[in-house]
Design brief:
This protein has about 210 residues and is an alpha/beta fold. The protein contains seven helices and seven strands. The chain has helices at about 40-50, 90-100, 125-140, 150-160, 160-165, 180-185, 205-210, and strands at about 5-10, 15-20, 20-30, 65-70, 100-105, 145, 175. A four-stranded parallel β-sheet has the order 5-4-6-7, sandwiched between helices. α1 packs parallel to α2 (about 90-100). The longest helix has 17 residues, at about 125-140.
Length: about 210
């Protein structure tokens, strides 16, 4: 069940914050230990940044970016997310919009499996799946892909060179974890957002973070 006003302890790149319903009430805290990925219901994450209640971010420089929200196959299964579609969940799109960027609600590969379980046993099958995910992002005009799944983030990012070699493509699509996107939107530096850990540099986020 969704709660309209929440108090959530959020860990973002070594900084602790307490959110009370909207980002305007952000309070830096020193003694909080709950990490965002420990929140059991992703709708709570969305509610905490106010996508339904008009919470404002301190920085809306992401407004010129178009971002494909790639949910993956595990985040939305086996039980689903309250009030969401299995085939076209919208909560990640709403988070993208909440940080000022343009989402792609009709991104057709948002719940496609990235083939993580096949990455070593049958890499050709896994990479074919990844190819479809990235192609769909390009087809929809995305500047980057964001995901709440750490395995998806790694899998879709690190195999792009292999896919380019196999299929003759020229993929160079940044794939970022959702907390990296949020960290930049909240005004953190590139170092705080761990942008130096990207295999494919998210240059647009780096430009924003370095301003």
């Amino acid at each position: 069940m969704l709660i309209s006003t929440l108090t959530i302890n959020v860990w973002i790149q070594s900084q602790r914050y307490l959110f009370r319903g909207s980002l305007n009430e952000r309070i830096k805290c020193e003694e909080l230990d709950i990490q965002l990925n420990e929140i059991p219901d992703w709708n709570y994450c969305g509610a905490s940044i106010g996508y339904g209640g008009g919470g404002e971010l301190p920085r809306l420089a992401l407004s010129a970016r178009k971002i494909a929200g790639y949910v993956g196959c595990q985040t939305n299964r086996p039980f689903g997310i309250a009030g969401e579609s299995f085939e076209n969940p919208q909560y990640l799109d709403k988070i993208v919009e909440s940080v000022g960027a343009e989402s792609i609600p009709g991104y057709e590969k948002k719940v496609q499996c990235c083939g993580g379980a096949l990455a070593f046993s049958e890499p050709e099958k896994s990479q074919e799946m990844i190819k479809g995910i990235i192609e769909a992002a390009y087809d929809n005009g995305a500047d980057m892909i964001v995901t709440p799944c750490p395995l998806c983030q790694a899998n879709v990012e690190i195999y792009q060179d292999n896919i380019n070699e196999t299929y003759g493509t020229k993929f160079n699509m940044p794939v970022v974890y959702y907390s990296t996107l949020m960290s930049v939107a909240f005004g953190r530096s590139a170092a705080d957002a761990a942008l130096n850990g990207q295999v494919i540099p998210a240059k647009q986020l780096e430009e924003i973070a370095n301003k």
